[in-house]
Amino acid sequence: MPVRLEGRIALVTGAGGGIGAASARRLATDGATVVLADIDLAAAEAAADTIPGAVPMALDLTEEGAVKAVADAIVARFGRIDILHNNAAIQNDAQRQKDLDVVNLDVAAWDMAMAVNVRGAMLMSKHTIPHMIAAGGGSIIHSASGFGVQGESTLTAYGSSKAALIHLNRMIATQYGKQNVRSNCMVIGFVLTPLAVESTPDVIKDILLTHHLTPRLGRPEDIADLVAFLASEESSFITGAAIPIDGGVTAHQPSYADFQKLFAQIGSTKL
């Protein structure tokens, strides 16, 4: 049985850990040669060490020259770029402490979120798409978030940047589809990345789980499965989509969890 991504060259941003590393690992398992790009080169190198044939590269998405240099270097080395996973985002603790409600939002946090999460994905696409077209086409996969489709009491900049990314995805799909470049977006829910496991209290995980329609929370490998599908020819008729991958969190009414508690108390779903 042929490996479905054999011969493909894939670039994953934010690949030093979490979803990025899991996606890079899955793409490689499916036969792709994977470049792991991250602002933290040491993290990219450590992740690449676990993936046969993987190449780590340092990348600062806020610098257009650096973005172009990475794309050009990949093409110079491998001759093409077939898959781009725009996964990188800024959401470290320092950023989160400044990314609050609108009145209390630090404008610098807003600017950083837009610079990395939207502008960075735009720049990466801008400098990758011409190479994809020259090679006959390609697949771009963006990591968006449920924060981009639902309001929240905090993380204003992060959520707004992910909403913009969802629409950037549609623009790319519309503009380059006839040249065989597909663009799709994953609307990702809470995922148990190593950072989330370490930093999220169990009580918060329990609250989040009550709003899932699945019996468990998400794992990086769940997202990686969708990345591999969207990178492959199996999804060749899908483009411009914003695909929820969140355990059903965005599929139900906001009152779902409260009604589940009520039904459990009265022993019936009849009101």
Q: Extract low-pLDDT stretches.
A: none
Q: Count all strands and give the number.
A: 7
Largest sheet: 7 strands, parallel
Strand order of the largest sheet: 3-2-1-4-5-6-7
Q: Overview of this structure, please?
A:
It is a single chain. The protein is 47% helix and 14% strand. Helix 2 links the parallel strand 2 and strand 3. By secondary structure, the chain is of the alpha/beta class. It has a single domain (9-201, 216-252), classed as Rossmann fold, CATH 3.40.50. It has a 7-stranded parallel sheet with strand order 3-2-1-4-5-6-7, with helices on both faces. The longest helix is centred in the middle third of the chain and has 28 residues, at 107-134.
Could you give the topology of this structure?
Layout (H helix, E strand, L loop, with lengths): L8 E5 L4 H12 L3 E6 L2 H8 L6 E4 L5 H15 L4 E4 L6 H6 L8 H28 L3 E8 L10 H21 L4 E8 L5 H6 L2 H9 L9 H12 L10 E4 L10 H11 L5
How would you summarize this macromolecular structure in one to three sentences?
The protein is an alpha/beta fold. It is 47% helix and 14% strand.
Key features?
Rossmann fold, seven-stranded parallel β-sheet, alpha/beta, 271 residues, 14% strand, 47% helix, globular
